[in-house]
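[stage:ingest] chain + small molecule (flavin mononucleotide)
[stage:ingest] validated
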Amino acid sequence: MKTLLVIKSSLFNGSGQSSKLVDRFAASWQQKNRGARVVVRDLAADPVAHLSAEAFQGFALPVEQRSPAQHAAAAISDSLIAELKQADAVAIGLPMYNFTVPSTFKAWMDHVARVGVSFEYTENGPRGLLESKPVYVFAARGGQYQGTEADTQTGLVRTFLGFIGLADVEFVYAEGLGMGEEAAQRALAEAGERIERLAA
Ligand SMILES: Cc1cc2nc3c(=O)[nH]c(=O)nc-3n(C[C@H](O)[C@H](O)[C@H](O)COP(=O)(O)O)c2cc1C
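[stage:predict] done
[stage:export] tokens:
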């Protein structure tokens, strides 16, 4: 059975624009992949803690030497990585907050990047340990930053995913959502059309 992993990070949960876009993609994807399942990881409803030194050090310890707090952090990290590994495709709802990714998404990244588990260093440099699969990112923004230096998200997310082995990444932007009703509707309609094409 095919699996789509949906990752959401809007403060506004299901009513966030990035959540609506990712939900729309998931619905179309599921229609095209009959019998497939969708697994949702909502980072706003169920946030991952900020990474602490104790948790980070625990990742490198043998299981039997971890403290209870290190066990708990490693268990969360293991389940986030397992979700990625088990998915056939990944769809990420990514709002722009204060010129970067939501802090909940950063905490997710900090628990997904694990040396020896999701990446390793070789004599030729870093190597991602996850099997390649399509990743779709639905980026919702109040302003318009695509192609400018203020778009701090695209490079960051692409680099991070590539680092763990996920280099097949497609971005869908809904920009200008804070620039008046007309601009917002136009951006959402364009994003909607791309979603239908992508899900096919
Ligand atoms: C706390 C906060 C910070 C924001 N910062 C930015 C920003 O830096 N740049 C921008 O273009 N829009 C910004 N916005 C607007 C959001 O990107 C826009 O509302 C988008 O729809 C958020 O996605 P969401 O609806 O899925 O939460 C901000 C919104 C909030 C609530």
